[in-house]
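This section describes the prediction task in plain terms. A model, or a person checking by hand, is given the sequence of a single protein chain and must write out its three-dimensional structure as a string of tokens. No templates, partner chains or ligands are provided. The sample shown here is typical of the held-out split.
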Amino acid sequence: MFISACKSPNGDKRDNVTCYNDSDCPPASASYCDSNNSACLNTTLFRCVASGTQDSACVPNATSVACTPCMSGCVNGSCLLGNATPDLVIRDMTFQVVDNLSDVRLNITVSVMNIGAGLAGQSATNLKVGATVLGQYQTPQLAPQQSVTLQPPATLLLLRGTTSTLTATADTQNQVVESREDNNRLTRAIS
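The expected answer:
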């Protein structure tokens, strides 16, 4: 279960004995964020039953949960710093060209990343070809250094030989207060 082979009290290795005493059963801990935006630690202590025999086992003995409220958000079981701010950027934008006889179709993929130190709330990402808006796409909440790949359902149709630009803008409606507001856009040439 937890220990595949232990040493007996005299130092011999016994493969079929899980534990000889409670200290052979280490505690198990799990960090998580609860629904109240608190950082929580769930710790389970184990005790050794049928110690020193082939039937020995580490079984749960007691469980404790300790939670700390997080004022600036919780990510992976840890509170974010109070003065930390997010920073949304378009990390990458790719398109797959589907070449037909009379036109060129582009299937577009956009990657939005939070490069800041704070939690970024839900926002919208805008996609344009030239001056024409293809649409705004919901971007979920992003933890620091987390990214999401958006695959807009729109397929762009260009006339053969046409040159244009494809621009993606994160947080296009300014829903998120960011450490930098001047790095939300990425533009690529398409032809």
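For orientation: The chain has no helices and 15 strands.
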